[in-house]
Amino acid sequence: MKIGLLGHGVVGKGVSRICDASEILQIKRILVKDDWELTDPRCTQNVQEILDDPEIDVVVECMGGIEPARSFLMKALQNGKHIVTSNKKMLANCSKELFAEAKKNNVSIHYEATCGGGIPWMASLERILRIDPIDSFRGIFNGTTNYILSRMDEESLEFEPLLKEAQKLGYAEQNPSDDIDGMDVRYKVALSCMKAFKVMPVLEEIPTYGIRYIQKKDLDYAKSQGMTCKLVGRAVNDGKCIQASVMPVFLKKEDVLANVSMNFNAIESDSPTLGKAVFTGQGAGSLPTAHAVVQDIYDIAYNEAMDTVDAAIAPVVNNKEKTFYLRTVNLSLYEAVCKEKIDENTCLTKKITLDELHALIGKNEDKDLFVAEVQE
Ligand SMILES: NC(=O)c1ccc[n+]([C@@H]2O[C@H](COP(=O)([O-])OP(=O)(O)OC[C@H]3O[C@@H](n4cnc5c(N)ncnc54)[C@H](OP(=O)(O)O)[C@@H]3O)[C@@H](O)[C@H]2O)c1
Question: 215: CA distance to ligand 1 center in Å?
Answer without folding.
Answer: 31
